Amino acid sequence: MASHSDTLVVFFGATAGANGGKLGSDERELILLVWQIVDLHENKVGQLQRTLVQPDSADLSEQCKEETELTAEELCKAEPLESVLQQFHQSVSAELKSLGRSSYTLCVDGPLLIRQVLHPEASKKNLVLPECFYTFVDLKKEFHKCCPNAGPVNDLTLTSMLDYVCIPAAVEQEAGLREVKNTVLLILHLLVEPYNHKFSTFETVNYKFESGACSKTEAVDSETVIRARGLPWQSSDQDIARFFKGLNIAKGGVALCLNAQGRRNGEALVRFINSEHRDMALDRHKHHMGNRYIEVYKATGEEFLKIAGGTSNEVAQFLSKENQVIIRMRGLPFTASPQDVLGFLGPESPVTDGMEGLLFVKYPDGRPTGDAFVLFACEEYAQNALKKHKQILGKRYIELFRSTAAEVQQVLNRYMSTPLISTLPPPPPMVSMPVLATPPFITTGSTRDCIRLRGLPYIAAIEDILEFMGEHTIDIRPHGVHMVFNQQGRPSGDAFIQMKSADRAFMVAQKCHKKMMKDRYVEVFQCSTEEMSFVLMGGTLNRSGLSPPPCKLPCLSPPTYAAFSATPAMLPAEAALYQPPLLATPRTPQAPAHNPAPALAYYSPQLYMNMNMSYTTYYPSPPVSPSTVSYFAAPPGSVAAAVAAQQAPSILPPQPGALVRMQGLPYNAGVKDILSFFQGYQLQADSVLMLYNWSGQRSGEALVTFPSEKAARQAVAECSNLPFSGHPIRLACCE
After folding, report:
1. Boundaries of each RRM domain copy (predicted)?
2. CA distance 691 to 676
3. How far apart are CA 80 and CA 83, in angstroms?
4. Which residues contact 572 (CB under 8 A, 6 or more apart)?
């Protein structure tokens, strides 16, 4: 059998879109193939072959029409790609047999035709390419080895290479034939004196993606990493490798990214074997995976290691078994044992090495998280396991998904780095402070003067919340904004805000509900301080009412400040930097005078978080004081300002106008109907706020803003109980 270097098949193709240096960048299909055999041993050439390929869409670009001079009518008469590839293989095999050769290697002018056109198109059409398309010779790189002074490889063109060696280009009218003839002339010239070149460097295309583990200590070149965005959430590493078919991904080089809840967020980091393949991957920006286009951007090696790198020996041992299919199980009962999982999967989906093929995800203290990863020896076993998606184990349904080695690392890294009390930094030095009974922060009660924001963007800060609330910011109590974080210290998407009155909270909930913040709509609900405290302690607040926190001990409820009235509070030392001299130095509590003004109580946010973190998923952020329309993260003297605000009339500007609540409205009543009802009061359309119930339907109520309290009271006196489309309307002023 002859070696690969004995016979080359010069191979050329054109697409219905961009060609040349942009070949394959627009996902257009092949429409033309041209080839010719070169016998390197005898310096002979075979017959020049040219054939058209019928695309699924015969819509040709202007560039394609100009360069190829082909028409849609000609292409409609051609054979599809699968048939053309069979003809190519049969034709080349027959010609090789006549030459006494048995094997050959493709030779192309640059890798784009093979890597960016042929392999991606065959993958999308589910075609199995012959083995010859997985190895090829890149003429530009071979020429650069012979003539290193001709310029960088990426700048070489067929014309510039011919000019460098002083070979006149072939004159040929038909596109494709001209390029192949010129390539053959260049190859024959390199085979003889003074070059005597031997074609020995072969480019390869990986048959399949190899999974594997990545260590955090491994060096990853930033010039080899990309970020893919917009992936379907159920896509696996094999799906991503198929999207980049034709390009060689490094072993274990696909890392699916997870969001704060541990679910896939539609992004992945992909590491290629070199920068050349990374650059070709960037040209697939906005190519399609199914019906979705995928965005492709540059990324860094540090980002890849942050997602895919791991240090756990247990994980490394688990992932050391190669060519395994990984399935992630989520929602397992906390009491589930390896035998329970093996029994759930059944004999039709045997786990590799039995219990050795299971990896349970746990918190640092050994508590189970409900997640596990399972290894299967083949795709058939994995498919059988996936059929059990959402089946019941114990009293819980179990979710099963395809997973990757990088996802195993990422999930283990996230849970194993969960901060518990033992891993928190030591609390700052504490100094004694006097505490009196009335705190400005959280006092529990059943009055519904709070609102809950749900669905906040995870990057949202308090400034964003204040901007979101707009004119209603002036109705927030001092120290009334509480961001909620999860146990990992990341934003949970929730926040609580204490308003000045229940009416103001109700109006904000109605007016801001499902308003947009940073491309996300935010739900706003009215609640009480008691309900707020329940959630901050780890309970849940939903439409069905309150679910208590997971702790059962009464002493773990939110702190009640009456209990601290006789005990000095603890103040972090650095907090004294923001206090006025009045409170900076510890002093002996003074006996209260007759009818004393309420004094300020301060407690340590670090202490409050430590009390709750081991029992609850959520804890509040340190209290803040948006006491003006502008927000200052840590204003000096903020505590003194709060004291002054309690001892003097509020300096906040009053809410403009006065509110009137309308009840008993017909459900089809609109803003125009209400404006007509109050004709003569000079109201604008934005003065009317229609109210809705939990189901999103109109509740039969509305809030109307009048220019003054006098006008509001006059409207109530004159219009109350007047008929509105046959219904008597009840009016009341809102305090």
Report:
1. 658-735
2. 18
3. 6
4. 427, 428, 429, 430, 604, 606
Confirm if 440 and 478 have CB atoms less than 8 A apart.
yes
Distance between CA atoms of residues 631 and 637, nearest Å: 14
Among all chains, which residue has been given the structure tokens 């920068």? Answer: 275
Q: What is the pLDDT of residues 336-378, one digit of tens each?
A: 999 999 999 999 999 998 988 999 998 877 888 899 999 999 9
Residues written for the chain: 735
Q: Which residues contact 356 (CB under 8 A, 6 or more apart)?
A: none
User: Could you give the CA distance from residue 448 to residue 465 in angstroms, rounded to a whole number?
Assistant: 20
Q: Helix, strand or coil for residue 220?
A: coil
Stretch 86-108: mean pLDDT: 90
568: Cβ contacts below 8 Å, ≥ 6 apart = 432, 433, 434, 435
Say how many C-beta atoms besides its own lie within 10 A of residue 456's C-beta.
23
Sign of CA dihedral 195, 199, 202, 203: positive
CA-CA distance, 214 to 727, in Å (whole number)? Answer: 71
Per-residue pLDDT tens for 637-688?
333 344 344 433 333 344 457 888 888 888 788 888 888 888 878 788 778 8
| 268 vs 296: CA distance, rounded Å | 10
Q: What Rg value do the Cα atoms of the chain yield, rounded?
A: 36
Average pLDDT, the chain: 78
Q: Which residue has 């041993």 as its token pair? A: 41
Task: Give the rounded distance of the alpha carbon of 336 from its chain centre.
Answer: 30
Closest CA to 645 of 440, 436, 433: 440
pLDDT-derived band at 283, boundaries 50, 70, 90:
very high
In single-letter form, the type of residue at position 111 comes to P
* pTM exceeds 0.70 for this model: no
Long-range contacts of 254-257 (CB under 8 A, 24+ apart): 254/209, 254/211, 254/404, 254/406, 255/214, 255/304, 255/307, 255/308, 255/404, 255/406, 255/407, 255/410, 256/231, 256/404, 256/406, 256/407, 256/410, 257/307, 257/410
Residues in CB range of 150: below 8 A, 6 or more apart: 143, 144, 156, 160, 161, 164
**Overall average pLDDT of the 714-724 stretch:** 88
List the beta bridge partners of residue 704: 660, 688
Question: Which residue(s) pair with 375 in the sheet?
Answer: 326
At residue 522, the 3 state secondary structure works out as strand
